[in-house]
Design goal:
single chain; mainly alpha; Arc Repressor Mutant, subunit A; Tetracycline Repressor, domain 2; 79% helix
Length: 191
């Protein structure tokens, strides 16, 4: 198996074990046994559990970059953002990205570890708030330049939008999130 595939297999298995048993309870030996490789082999791929978590975060960043690139391509290819696709994009962010089979377990693991592991707190904040809000602010800046929105404070709009998305994520109530995003769209966008 190529090295990259083995690394991804290790990450997937680590996510599964960490979400089942907790980060602290899983040793590199446990992970090696679960993957079906020797302990020395697992250290060839990841020198520590912290390096493994960093690998997980890098994989998440790659998935995030692809999603953002796709979003900007779609946004750039349309003259006007309509309500239904706008709402669908927010719901899809929760259902297809945050609940993605590789992202969701990582976020859950980081959330449980963030109170006693500073690196986990930093990664969780970055993935849940810092990076998405920065991306959303850029989107609202672009929409303001294109004259599609009434308000030009992109940071404030991004914070409000992200709050609605997080409501959907943390409660699991994407129907309510869709209603709130529709109300947000109707209030903010020029129609």
């Amino acid at each position: 198996m190529p090295k990259e595939n083995k690394k991804e297999l290790i990450i997937r298995e680590a996510l599964k074990l960490f979400s089942e048993k907790g980060f602290a309870a899983v040793s590199m030996r446990d992970l090696a046994e679960s993957v079906g490789i020797s302990v020395s082999t697992i250290y060839h791929y990841y020198e520590s559990k912290q390096a493994l978590v960093q690998g997980m975060i890098e994989l998440a960043n790659e998935l995030t970059a692809k999603a953002r690139d796709s979003f900007f391509r779609i946004l750039s290819g349309t003259e006007k953002v309509e309500c239904e696709p706008f709402v669908r994009a927010g719901v899809m962010y929760v259902t297809a990205y945050l609940r993605h089979e590789q992202i969701d377990p990582l976020l859950r693991m980081l959330e449980s570890e963030r109170f006693h592991e500073p690196a986990a707190e930093e990664a969780w904040q970055k993935m849940m708030f810092t990076d998405p809000i920065a991306h959303e602010a850029k989107v609202f800046e672009l929409l303001a330049v294109r004259g599609e929105i009434r308000e030009t404070d992109a940071d404030r709009l991004a914070g409000e939008y992200h709050g609605i998305v997080m409501l959907g994520y943390f409660t699991g109530d994407t129907d309510r999130m869709a209603r709130e995003l529709t109300a947000f769209y109707n209030r903010v966008f020029n129609r």
